[in-house]
Amino acid sequence: MAIRLGLSLPQARQYDIGRDVPDVARTAEQIGYESLWVYERALFPEPATQGLYGIEGLAWPDVYRGVPDPLVTLTLAAASTERARLGTSILVAPLHNPFQLAKSLATLDAASGGRVLAGLGTGWSLDEYAAAGVAPFEERGRVLDEIIDVCRAVWGPDPVTYEGRITKIASAVVAPKPARPIPILLPTNSKKAMTRLVDRADGWMPIAMGVEQLATQWRQLQDLAAERGRTDPIETVVRINARHSPKAYDGTDRSPFQGSTAQIVEDLAAHVAGTGLDAFFFELQGSARDAEELKDVAAEIHESVRAAGI
Question: Is the peptide bond prior to 47 cis by the omega test (within 30 degrees of 0)?
Answer without folding.
Answer: yes
